[in-house]
Amino acid sequence: MSADMAAWEQRSVVPVVPPARPRKLAKVPFVELADGRLQGVVSSGSDIERVYVSSIAAGTHAFSCSTNNNRPCGGLYSTPCKHLQALVAEAVIQYGLDRVAGYLRVEVGDDGDLIRALDGGVERTQASMVFSRFLRHLAYLELPGTGQAVAELHWFPATGAGA
């Protein structure tokens, strides 16, 4: 770890957890462990303008998948659809299998197949909250580079800020 990164982590109020592995953002541009769910946005394989908001609840393992305007996923039945499978795969890349399984409170077998370990069913949830969080994160990409703290991210100090 570089000295600059170590100094930045020491100034941070929230512990910095590096991704388990770098991941590509084209298929699953947004994945998070938040609000008691693994949730995120998954790109459609057939329509470049459509995205799906997918989630799995911690504990109950209830899962949901719909378009960003709440149209149900056509592939969601009694088992997770391909969007949920992609979300889980990317979450494991981002956070690591142990962290995702621990957050969802699921015991994963020796095969490491988290999807097969889930025992929940379909429980439709509103996509708007997750999708609005995704859009807010996208807005950060539009901000010009600055040494000043962004109000919503004030707990992450700017690089080079005094300790």
Distance between the first and last residues' Cα: 19 Å
Unreliable spans = none
User: What structural class do the secondary elements suggest?
Assistant: alpha+beta
How are the strands ordered across the major sheet? 1-2-3-4
Return the average pLDDT rounded to an integer: 81
Number of strands: 4
The 3D shape can be described as globular
Relative helix content: 25-40%
Element string (H = helix, E = strand): HEEEEHHHH
- How big a fraction of the residues is strand? 5-15%
Please, how many helices? 5
Rg calculated over all Cα atoms: 17 Å
Biggest sheet overview: 4 strands, antiparallel
Features:
four-stranded antiparallel β-sheet; 163 residues; 29% helix; 4 strands; globular; alpha+beta
How is this structure best described in words?
It is built from five helices and four strands; from the N terminus they run H-E-E-E-E-H-H-H-H. A four-stranded antiparallel β-sheet has the order 1-2-3-4, with helices on both faces. The protein starts with a helix and ends in a 23-residue tail after the last helix. The relative contact order is 0.17.
